[in-house]
Amino acid sequence: MATLLPGQLSGLQPRFLLQYGEVTAEPGDRAVHLPVLLSNLSDSIGGWDLLLKYDDSGGRVVNVELCDSVLVEDSLWYYAPWILNPDLRRPDYFEFSLNQGGHPEWLRVIAIMNMPEGDVVPPLPPGDEQLLFCLSYDVSAQWDGHDVQFDFQTNDCGDNILIDVSGYIVWGPDTSSAPISTCPLHLRPYDLRVVTLSAGTGIRKPTGIDDTSVRTPAESFLFHQHPNPLSSSTDIRFYLPQESRVSVEVYNLVGGLVTTLTDGEMSAGYHVVRWNTQDVSSGLYFLRIEVTSGDQTLYHGVKKLTVLK
Protein backbone atom coordinates (compact mmCIF):
# COMPACT_ATOMS: atom_id res chain seq x y z
CA MET A 1 0.00 0.00 0.00
CA ALA A 2 1.45 3.31 -1.04
CA THR A 3 0.23 6.24 1.01
CA LEU A 4 -0.26 9.73 -0.40
CA LEU A 5 1.21 12.11 2.14
CA PRO A 6 -1.03 14.93 3.43
CA GLY A 7 -0.45 18.47 2.25
CA GLN A 8 -0.01 21.49 4.48
CA LEU A 9 -3.45 23.00 5.04
CA SER A 10 -3.56 25.94 7.43
CA GLY A 11 -2.50 23.89 10.42
CA LEU A 12 -5.04 21.10 9.79
CA GLN A 13 -3.58 17.76 10.84
CA PRO A 14 -4.68 14.38 9.48
CA ARG A 15 -6.54 12.29 12.04
CA PHE A 16 -7.73 9.51 9.79
CA LEU A 17 -6.27 7.28 7.10
CA LEU A 18 -8.22 5.36 4.45
CA GLN A 19 -6.29 2.67 2.61
CA TYR A 20 -6.49 -0.64 0.78
CA GLY A 21 -5.06 -4.00 1.73
CA GLU A 22 -3.07 -5.84 -0.95
CA VAL A 23 -4.08 -9.33 -2.05
CA THR A 24 -2.84 -11.82 -4.65
CA ALA A 25 -4.83 -13.49 -7.40
CA GLU A 26 -4.51 -15.54 -10.57
CA PRO A 27 -6.15 -14.94 -13.97
CA GLY A 28 -9.75 -16.10 -13.88
CA ASP A 29 -10.14 -15.96 -10.08
CA ARG A 30 -13.62 -15.00 -8.89
CA ALA A 31 -14.79 -13.03 -5.84
CA VAL A 32 -11.31 -12.00 -4.70
CA HIS A 33 -11.83 -9.96 -1.52
CA LEU A 34 -9.93 -6.67 -1.33
CA PRO A 35 -10.18 -4.96 2.09
CA VAL A 36 -10.79 -1.25 2.65
CA LEU A 37 -9.28 -0.16 5.97
CA LEU A 38 -9.73 2.81 8.30
CA SER A 39 -7.29 4.07 10.92
CA ASN A 40 -9.10 6.47 13.26
CA LEU A 41 -6.78 6.82 16.22
CA SER A 42 -8.60 9.41 18.32
CA ASP A 43 -12.22 9.84 17.14
CA SER A 44 -15.24 7.59 16.76
CA ILE A 45 -17.14 7.70 13.47
CA GLY A 46 -20.79 7.25 12.65
CA GLY A 47 -20.54 6.43 8.94
CA TRP A 48 -18.79 7.05 5.63
CA ASP A 49 -19.37 8.07 2.02
CA LEU A 50 -16.51 6.97 -0.22
CA LEU A 51 -15.83 7.35 -3.93
CA LEU A 52 -13.43 4.75 -5.33
CA LYS A 53 -11.77 4.22 -8.68
CA TYR A 54 -9.76 1.28 -9.96
CA ASP A 55 -7.94 -0.04 -13.02
CA ASP A 56 -10.55 -2.17 -14.78
CA SER A 57 -8.15 -3.63 -17.34
CA GLY A 58 -7.51 -6.62 -15.05
CA GLY A 59 -11.11 -7.37 -14.11
CA ARG A 60 -14.21 -5.94 -12.43
CA VAL A 61 -15.54 -5.14 -8.99
CA VAL A 62 -18.78 -7.13 -8.91
CA ASN A 63 -19.90 -6.65 -5.32
CA VAL A 64 -19.21 -4.76 -2.09
CA GLU A 65 -19.67 -6.60 1.20
CA LEU A 66 -19.57 -5.94 4.93
CA CYS A 67 -17.12 -8.80 5.35
CA ASP A 68 -16.21 -10.11 8.79
CA SER A 69 -12.62 -11.01 7.94
CA VAL A 70 -10.23 -11.14 5.00
CA LEU A 71 -6.84 -12.73 4.38
CA VAL A 72 -4.19 -10.62 2.64
CA GLU A 73 -0.54 -11.16 1.78
CA ASP A 74 1.85 -12.97 4.12
CA SER A 75 -0.98 -14.77 5.94
CA LEU A 76 -2.19 -11.54 7.53
CA TRP A 77 -5.85 -11.42 8.61
CA TYR A 78 -7.96 -8.28 9.03
CA TYR A 79 -11.15 -8.44 11.09
CA ALA A 80 -14.21 -6.18 11.16
CA PRO A 81 -14.64 -4.16 14.38
CA TRP A 82 -17.89 -5.98 15.22
CA ILE A 83 -15.99 -9.30 15.19
CA LEU A 84 -13.25 -8.09 17.52
CA ASN A 85 -15.63 -6.25 19.87
CA PRO A 86 -18.93 -7.97 20.79
CA ASP A 87 -20.38 -4.61 21.88
CA LEU A 88 -20.30 -3.32 18.29
CA ARG A 89 -22.69 -4.05 15.44
CA ARG A 90 -22.79 -3.80 11.68
CA PRO A 91 -24.00 -0.47 10.23
CA ASP A 92 -27.74 0.11 10.28
CA TYR A 93 -27.58 1.34 6.69
CA PHE A 94 -25.22 0.12 3.96
CA GLU A 95 -25.40 0.55 0.20
CA PHE A 96 -23.10 0.70 -2.79
CA SER A 97 -23.38 1.57 -6.45
CA LEU A 98 -21.20 0.23 -9.24
CA ASN A 99 -20.67 2.11 -12.52
CA GLN A 100 -20.92 5.38 -10.61
CA GLY A 101 -21.84 8.24 -12.93
CA GLY A 102 -21.82 5.90 -15.90
CA HIS A 103 -18.14 5.06 -15.40
CA PRO A 104 -17.57 1.29 -15.02
CA GLU A 105 -14.35 1.78 -13.05
CA TRP A 106 -15.95 4.02 -10.39
CA LEU A 107 -18.02 2.96 -7.39
CA ARG A 108 -19.52 4.56 -4.30
CA VAL A 109 -19.97 3.04 -0.83
CA ILE A 110 -22.17 4.59 1.89
CA ALA A 111 -22.77 3.41 5.45
CA ILE A 112 -24.50 4.87 8.51
CA MET A 113 -23.88 3.17 11.82
CA ASN A 114 -27.04 4.36 13.59
CA MET A 115 -30.28 5.26 11.81
CA PRO A 116 -32.91 7.42 13.60
CA GLU A 117 -35.36 4.53 13.94
CA GLY A 118 -34.80 1.24 15.70
CA ASP A 119 -32.15 0.08 18.14
CA VAL A 120 -29.14 2.22 18.90
CA VAL A 121 -26.02 1.12 17.03
CA PRO A 122 -22.78 2.44 18.58
CA PRO A 123 -20.26 4.30 16.41
CA LEU A 124 -16.94 2.79 15.43
CA PRO A 125 -14.48 3.57 18.24
CA PRO A 126 -10.86 4.57 17.60
CA GLY A 127 -8.78 1.80 16.05
CA ASP A 128 -5.90 1.01 13.70
CA GLU A 129 -6.51 -0.57 10.27
CA GLN A 130 -10.15 -1.42 10.97
CA LEU A 131 -11.84 -3.45 8.25
CA LEU A 132 -14.75 -1.36 6.92
CA PHE A 133 -15.81 -3.51 3.96
CA CYS A 134 -14.48 -5.64 1.10
CA LEU A 135 -14.55 -5.17 -2.64
CA SER A 136 -15.34 -8.43 -4.42
CA TYR A 137 -13.25 -8.54 -7.60
CA ASP A 138 -13.52 -10.93 -10.55
CA VAL A 139 -10.14 -11.27 -12.27
CA SER A 140 -10.21 -11.47 -16.05
CA ALA A 141 -8.98 -14.74 -17.55
CA GLN A 142 -6.94 -12.57 -19.93
CA TRP A 143 -5.24 -10.59 -17.13
CA ASP A 144 -1.54 -10.33 -17.96
CA GLY A 145 -0.46 -10.11 -14.31
CA HIS A 146 0.15 -6.34 -14.10
CA ASP A 147 -0.59 -4.76 -10.71
CA VAL A 148 -4.22 -3.59 -10.47
CA GLN A 149 -4.31 -0.12 -8.92
CA PHE A 150 -7.05 1.22 -6.62
CA ASP A 151 -7.43 4.70 -5.17
CA PHE A 152 -9.91 7.10 -3.62
CA GLN A 153 -11.07 9.85 -5.95
CA THR A 154 -12.27 13.36 -5.12
CA ASN A 155 -14.67 15.25 -7.38
CA ASP A 156 -16.12 17.71 -4.90
CA CYS A 157 -16.51 18.48 -1.20
CA GLY A 158 -18.93 15.59 -0.71
CA ASP A 159 -16.53 12.81 -1.73
CA ASN A 160 -14.57 10.61 0.67
CA ILE A 161 -15.97 11.86 3.92
CA LEU A 162 -16.42 10.38 7.38
CA ILE A 163 -19.46 11.17 9.52
CA ASP A 164 -19.37 11.95 13.22
CA VAL A 165 -21.58 10.25 15.81
CA SER A 166 -24.27 12.93 15.49
CA GLY A 167 -24.58 12.42 11.73
CA TYR A 168 -22.82 15.61 10.63
CA ILE A 169 -20.11 15.55 7.99
CA VAL A 170 -17.06 17.03 9.66
CA TRP A 171 -14.17 14.99 8.26
CA GLY A 172 -13.10 15.24 4.65
CA PRO A 173 -10.12 14.54 2.41
CA ASP A 174 -6.94 16.54 2.32
CA THR A 175 -7.40 17.68 -1.27
CA SER A 176 -3.82 18.88 -1.52
CA SER A 177 -2.86 15.22 -1.73
CA ALA A 178 -6.04 13.80 -3.24
CA PRO A 179 -5.97 12.74 -6.93
CA ILE A 180 -8.40 15.56 -7.85
CA SER A 181 -8.52 18.85 -5.95
CA THR A 182 -11.79 20.74 -6.43
CA CYS A 183 -12.91 21.48 -2.88
CA PRO A 184 -12.03 25.13 -2.14
CA LEU A 185 -10.47 25.67 1.23
CA HIS A 186 -12.92 28.43 2.13
CA LEU A 187 -15.82 25.96 1.95
CA ARG A 188 -14.35 23.71 4.65
CA PRO A 189 -15.65 23.83 8.20
CA TYR A 190 -13.16 25.64 10.40
CA ASP A 191 -12.72 22.55 12.57
CA LEU A 192 -12.47 20.03 9.73
CA ARG A 193 -10.41 17.00 10.66
CA VAL A 194 -8.58 15.69 7.63
CA VAL A 195 -8.88 12.23 6.10
CA THR A 196 -5.65 11.19 4.39
CA LEU A 197 -6.31 9.13 1.27
CA SER A 198 -4.21 6.18 0.21
CA ALA A 199 -3.67 4.59 -3.19
CA GLY A 200 -1.70 1.65 -4.46
CA THR A 201 -1.72 -1.91 -5.71
CA GLY A 202 -4.82 -3.83 -4.71
CA ILE A 203 -4.49 -7.00 -6.79
CA ARG A 204 -1.21 -8.57 -7.84
CA LYS A 205 0.05 -11.97 -8.93
CA PRO A 206 1.66 -14.24 -6.31
CA THR A 207 5.45 -14.07 -6.11
CA GLY A 208 5.79 -17.79 -5.60
CA ILE A 209 7.13 -17.52 -2.06
CA ASP A 210 5.46 -20.83 -1.14
CA ASP A 211 7.41 -22.62 -3.86
CA THR A 212 11.09 -22.82 -2.95
CA SER A 213 11.97 -23.83 -6.50
CA VAL A 214 11.02 -20.35 -7.80
CA ARG A 215 11.84 -18.33 -4.70
CA THR A 216 14.28 -15.46 -5.25
CA PRO A 217 16.91 -14.66 -2.59
CA ALA A 218 15.04 -11.54 -1.47
CA GLU A 219 11.72 -13.39 -1.19
CA SER A 220 13.28 -16.07 1.03
CA PHE A 221 13.36 -13.65 3.97
CA LEU A 222 9.62 -12.73 3.98
CA PHE A 223 9.93 -9.41 5.82
CA HIS A 224 6.57 -7.96 6.88
CA GLN A 225 5.56 -5.26 9.36
CA HIS A 226 2.14 -4.83 10.97
CA PRO A 227 0.40 -2.58 11.70
CA ASN A 228 1.36 0.07 9.17
CA PRO A 229 0.26 2.87 9.67
CA LEU A 230 0.85 2.56 13.40
CA SER A 231 0.19 4.59 16.52
CA SER A 232 2.15 3.04 19.39
CA SER A 233 4.10 0.05 18.05
CA THR A 234 4.62 -2.23 15.08
CA ASP A 235 6.02 -5.75 14.76
CA ILE A 236 8.59 -6.56 12.08
CA ARG A 237 8.34 -10.28 11.30
CA PHE A 238 10.82 -12.13 9.13
CA TYR A 239 12.19 -15.53 8.26
CA LEU A 240 15.88 -16.41 8.00
CA PRO A 241 16.72 -19.46 5.87
CA GLN A 242 20.11 -19.67 7.61
CA GLU A 243 21.95 -18.22 10.60
CA SER A 244 22.76 -14.60 9.69
CA ARG A 245 23.61 -11.18 11.06
CA VAL A 246 20.54 -8.93 10.98
CA SER A 247 20.45 -5.14 11.21
CA VAL A 248 17.09 -3.36 11.47
CA GLU A 249 17.19 0.44 11.74
CA VAL A 250 14.64 3.26 11.53
CA TYR A 251 15.41 6.56 9.78
CA ASN A 252 13.44 9.80 9.50
CA LEU A 253 12.65 11.77 6.34
CA VAL A 254 15.95 13.68 6.38
CA GLY A 255 18.01 10.51 6.71
CA GLY A 256 18.72 10.71 10.43
CA LEU A 257 18.95 7.49 12.42
CA VAL A 258 16.00 7.29 14.84
CA THR A 259 16.74 3.93 16.47
CA THR A 260 18.46 0.60 15.93
CA LEU A 261 16.00 -2.21 16.64
CA THR A 262 18.48 -5.06 16.32
CA ASP A 263 22.02 -5.59 15.11
CA GLY A 264 23.48 -9.01 15.71
CA GLU A 265 23.54 -12.71 14.90
CA MET A 266 20.22 -14.59 14.67
CA SER A 267 19.48 -18.25 14.16
CA ALA A 268 17.58 -19.67 11.19
CA GLY A 269 13.81 -19.53 11.51
CA TYR A 270 11.07 -16.98 12.23
CA HIS A 271 11.75 -13.83 14.28
CA VAL A 272 9.84 -10.77 15.50
CA VAL A 273 11.31 -7.33 16.30
CA ARG A 274 9.07 -4.62 17.81
CA TRP A 275 9.38 -0.85 17.36
CA ASN A 276 7.70 1.18 20.13
CA THR A 277 6.90 4.70 18.92
CA GLN A 278 5.78 6.46 22.11
CA ASP A 279 8.72 8.89 21.87
CA VAL A 280 8.48 9.74 18.16
CA SER A 281 6.16 12.18 16.40
CA SER A 282 3.69 11.47 13.61
CA GLY A 283 5.18 11.27 10.15
CA LEU A 284 6.87 9.07 7.56
CA TYR A 285 9.80 6.86 8.55
CA PHE A 286 11.97 4.36 6.74
CA LEU A 287 12.79 0.87 7.96
CA ARG A 288 16.23 -0.24 6.74
CA ILE A 289 16.86 -3.99 6.86
CA GLU A 290 20.12 -5.74 6.06
CA VAL A 291 20.97 -9.43 6.37
CA THR A 292 24.59 -10.54 5.96
CA SER A 293 26.70 -13.65 6.31
CA GLY A 294 30.39 -12.90 6.58
CA ASP A 295 31.21 -10.47 3.78
CA GLN A 296 28.14 -11.42 1.73
CA THR A 297 24.94 -9.34 1.75
CA LEU A 298 22.01 -11.73 1.61
CA TYR A 299 19.22 -9.17 1.79
CA HIS A 300 18.94 -5.39 1.78
CA GLY A 301 15.66 -3.49 1.74
CA VAL A 302 13.94 -0.26 2.77
CA LYS A 303 10.25 -0.11 3.73
CA LYS A 304 8.04 2.89 4.55
CA LEU A 305 6.36 3.20 7.94
CA THR A 306 3.71 5.81 8.74
CA VAL A 307 3.20 6.90 12.36
CA LEU A 308 -0.21 8.45 13.13
CA LYS A 309 -0.95 9.83 16.60
Itemize the secondary structure elements and their pairings.
Elements lengths: L1 E2 L10 E7 L2 E2 L7 E9 L6 E8 L4 E7 L3 E4 L3 E4 L1 H4 L8 E6 L7 E7 L14 E13 L8 E5 L8 E3 L5 E5 L19 E4 L1 E7 L19 E3 L6 E8 L3 E8 L5 E10 L2 E8 L6 E11 L2 E12 L2
Describe this structure in words.
The chain folds into two domains: 203 residues, Immunoglobulin-like; 89 residues, Sandwich (Immunoglobulin-like). It has one helix and 23 strands. Strands 1, 2, 3, 4, 5, 6, 9, 10, 11, 12, 13, 14, 15 and 16 form a 14-stranded mixed beta sheet that branches. It has a four-stranded antiparallel beta sheet with strand order 20-19-22-23, with no helix packed on it. Strand 19 and strand 20 form a beta hairpin. It is globular and about 65 Å long. The N terminus is likely disordered.
Give the structure's gist in a few sentences:
This protein is mainly β and 309 residues long.
List keywords for this structure.
309 residues; mainly beta; 14-stranded mixed beta sheet; 50% strand; 23 strands; single chain; Immunoglobulin-like; four-stranded antiparallel beta sheet; 2 domains
Cα separation of the termini: 19 Å
Task: Let me know the number of strands.
Answer: 23
Low-confidence stretches: 1-13, 208-220
Overall residue-averaged pLDDT value:
78
CATH architecture of the largest domain: Sandwich
Q: Can you count the helices?
A: 1
Radius of gyration: 20 Å
Name of the level-1 CATH class of the largest domain: Mainly Beta
The helical percent reads under 10%
